[in-house]
Design a protein that fits this description.
single chain, alpha+beta
Length: 166
């Protein structure tokens, strides 16, 4: 007795249906994730001007920091952040702004005001040490800026101008 099986009982038919269907579902899931991602995921936090296909960022603060030969060290303590000047002409009586950027999540970025102290500048804050931080130090008027990258689990980083010396 020769019985014919239903096509839906054949594994090859399910394979031919399931593969394209899974690709369509994955495409819609990626579209949904891209449309509903939170925040700006750009690595550059500076305002960028686009001319044609060239993006131009203002390097004035970096040039100023390079000319003034500014460098400092950020020390992460238990509940405190301290910036110690290493070289250059800092205004030791003015507060500074410390910007901590998460490498991937803009929603985790932080900005702190550092107040002058006996050795440099100080802020009372805790810093999550489970990931890297991109650290930027500047005055309130953004006249100069120095930067560094604080790797996870590390407690200090050197801050220097982004531009290489001439």
């Amino acid at each position: 007795m020769d019985k014919t099986r239903s096509p839906w009982r054949e594994p090859m038919v399910w394979l031919l249906v399931a593969l394209p269907l899974s690709a369509v579902i994955a495409a819609f899931a990626l579209l949904y994730a891209a449309a509903h991602s939170s925040g700006n995921n750009d690595m550059v936090a500076d305002p960028v001007q686009q001319t044609g296909q060239i993006q131009v960022s203002d390097l004035g603060p970096d040039t100023s920091a390079q000319q003034r030969q500014l460098s400092a060290v950020l020390h992460v303590g238990a509940g405190s952040l301290d910036v110690l000047p290493v070289s250059g002409d800092f205004d030791r009586h003015a507060p500074l702004r410390l910007t901590l950027r998460h490498p991937a999540l803009a929603a985790s970025d932080r900005a702190l005001s550092l107040q002058p102290s006996a050795d440099g500048w100080h802020a009372t804050a805790t810093l999550e040490s489970g990931h890297d931080w991109i650290v930027q130090l500047s005055p309130a008027d953004n006249g100069w800026r120095i930067e560094g990258r604080l790797p996870k689990q590390q407690r200090a980083v050197r801050l220097a101008p982004r531009l290489a010396p001439d």
